[in-house]
Design a protein that fits this description.
- The protein is mostly helical.
- It is built from 16 helices and no strands.
- The chain has two domains: about 240 residues, Rhopdopsin 7-helix transmembrane proteins, CATH 1.20.1070; about 150 residues, no CATH class.
- It is elongated, with a radius of gyration of 34 Å.
């Protein structure tokens, strides 16, 4: 058990230190924010507690100060009473108006201070005349009435704070306006629940000692509950800060992946109709993987693909689309996959006709939904009637189908490859 604590508790201390350093950055711009100050105090107290909880550190502190079990007192004061009050103060300022939050925070801090004074007094009286330190202070001394009262007060102060945190997080998490604040509150509630399990375990150990049982047999629950609790508490209480940044990075990554998936379709259209490119410099190979502002480049790519499809519409033969529809239906395709396959085969045929300088098969003005016997134009118009996200989703279906058609249609693939190797310069609109 000592080996497990020697690994878990230092790791928890490091986690608290990282959270403290992360939130310290906000102190430059929010020096008067009581919630931020409370979080800094909470992370600092928890970090000190987990450091003292490391068996070798606790033993060294007792030996250095020459006071038996003073490390245990520090663990309980910093990690239980002080940190729970500080965490609760931060949450109170999150969910209540400033004036109401100040009153509630002062009441909780006063209660925590009274508990701390009482604990120090009981610990000092219980330790009078002690010659040796206890490796497990609460468990090895729970049979003593004064230590038992000390344990009850400690568990009550720590557990009450966790219960209040759970109540506030669950209550206000349901109505929180900001998504990442809501997620942070729920995550914090999970962490407080794990800490509450630790409190119940300590309370159970008191009953076990009085019943002649050895609570050290399930002491593994202590590092597990504390480690889980601090992990979720740190994540939840910092989530409103890093959550939006994470969402932004996820959006950028998603846009980059979408950009790469649409690029083969765009490249084929650009080779056939270079005028669609607003900035021909973005047509190079390197620009594909270093697009710069990816959100803007994706938006431009979607517009240019639409322009390219519109320019090639006169070359899309209805007979080709009808044959493509029959083949897709026979292959079991339906919905967007079927429409995208029809569009892709019509596009491949149009690219081949454009490359071979064949005359258009129909006038662009006649390519409305009412003339849609090929199934291509109507689906495209349906997609563009939706929002930007729907249009991107539709073009992804088309790009996927285009790649599949190009892979199976050897002549078209060679024709498209030759056309792709064509001019790379175009007019700037």
């Amino acid at each position: 058990m000592t080996a497990v604590k020697a690994v878990v508790f230092p790791a928890c201390a490091v986690l608290c230190a990282l959270a403290l350093l992360y939130k310290l950055r906000d102190l430059r711009h929010h020096r008067r924010d009581p919630a931020l100050l409370a979080l800094l105090i909470a992370f600092g107290c928890k970090g000190i507690s987990f450091t003292l909880s490391t068996p070798s550190v606790a033993e060294a502190v007792d030996a250095r100060l020459g006071v038996s079990d003073i490390g245990a007192l520090g663990i309980h004061l910093f990690g239980g009473v002080a940190s729970s009050a500080a965490f609760l103060t931060a949450i109170v300022y999150w969910v209540y108006p400033p004036e109401a939050a100040r009153r509630r925070a002062l009441v909780r801090l006063l209660i925590a201070a009274l508990c701390a004074v009482a604990m120090v007094t009981m610990w000092a009286v219980a330790g009078t005349g002690a010659q040796h330190r206890s490796a497990h202070y609460l468990l090895q001394n729970a049979h003593r009435p004064l230590v038992a009262a000390y344990l009850l007060l400690y568990v009550s102060a720590f557990g009450a704070g966790m219960i209040e945190i759970i109540r506030l997080c669950r209550r206000y998490g349901r109505v929180a306006g900001r998504q990442w604040l809501r997620r942070g509150l729920y995550c914090t509630a999970i962490g407080a629940s794990a800490c509450l399990v630790y409190c119940l375990n300590r309370l159970l150990s008191l009953i076990a000692v009085q019943s002649g049982l050895d609570p050290l047999e399930w002491e593994l629950l202590t590092p597990v509950a504390n480690g889980t609790g601090i992990l979720f508490l740190v994540a939840g209480l910092t989530m409103p800060s890093w959550g939006p940044r994470l969402a932004e990075w996820r959006r950028l990554v998603r846009n980059f992946v979408t950009y790469q998936r649409l690029h083969p379709l765009w490249a084929a259209l650009y080779a056939a109709v270079p005028d669609i490119a607003l900035n021909p410099q973005h047509a190079g190979r390197l620009a594909r993987f270093l697009p710069g502002d990816i959100s803007y480049r994706l938006y431009r790519m979607v517009i240019e693909i639409q322009d390219g499809l519109l320019a090639l519409r006169p070359y899309m033969a209805p007979a080709v689309a009808a044959d493509a529809r029959r083949s897709a239906e026979e292959a079991g395709l339906s919905g967007d996959r079927l429409h995208a396959m029809v569009q892709a085969r019509s596009l491949v045929s149009a690219l081949r006709a454009k490359h071979d300088d064949r005359p258009p098969v129909r006038e662009s003005e006649s390519a409305g939904p009412e003339a849609d016997t090929d199934g291509g134009d109507a689906e495209e118009q349906t997609a563009t009637n939706g929002g930007y996200a729907e249009e991107v989703g539709w073009l992804l279906h088309v790009a996927r189908a285009y790649i599949a058609v190009r892979a199976t249609d050897r002549p078209t693939a060679r024709s498209t490859d030759r056309s792709t190797a064509g001019p790379t310069e175009g007019k700037v609109r």
